[in-house]
Specification:
It contains 3 helices and 4 strands, in the order H-H-E-E-E-H-E. It is an alpha+beta fold and 158 residues long. Helix 1 packs antiparallel against helix 2.
């Protein structure tokens, strides 16, 4: 299920690659022409007709590739959003409110050395990571470590 926008982006990418290739060929021809001439007045036509347009084509090709790849990424994000919206929200309970279960409930606190956050032991960001170590309370007290926004460990447990 590809979006129509994704199909329209491919010509931009092909045009970018073609412009890069044509620019490289023109620069090579210009260099070859300039290298064969001894006097500057004989080198100028090669610079004007090959090297300068070749450099312009290389820049244009790079811009087209950057814009095309950004469009491909945007099209993929739109496609994923469409899939997410298509799935619909979860069914709320009879009261009309969805009850959100806490993501992590463990009382044990962990941190990753060199990290900037402290987590509950069952937080998905540190669960199963061998390098996770118990939290140093001095780092939490000094403010070097902040609470994880995913598992939201309470500050009084630190």
């Amino acid at each position: 299920m590809r979006s129509s926008r994704l199909r329209t982006v491919h010509p931009v990418l092909w045009a970018g690659w073609a412009a890069l290739a044509a620019g490289a060929v023109l620069c090579a021809v210009g260099w070859y022409g300039v290298s064969g001439e001894r006097y500057a007045e004989r080198q100028l036509p090669y610079l004007a007709s090959c090297t300068v347009p070749g450099a312009a084509l290389i820049i244009a090709g790079a811009v087209l590739l950057a814009q095309g790849r950004g469009s491909v990424a945007a099209a993929r994000v739109e496609e994923l959003y469409g899939l997410l919206v298509e799935a619909g929200p979860a069914e709320p309970e009879a009261s009309g409110r969805a009850v959100l279960a806490p993501l992590a409930v463990s009382g044990d606190l962990l941190m990753v050395p060199g990290g900037t956050l402290w987590h509950r032991a069952d937080c998905p960001l540190v669960a199963g990571r061998a390098e996770a170590v118990p939290v140093d309370s001095k780092l939490v007290a000094s403010g070097e470590l902040g609470p994880c926004p995913i598992c939201e460990p309470a500050e009084e447990t630190g």
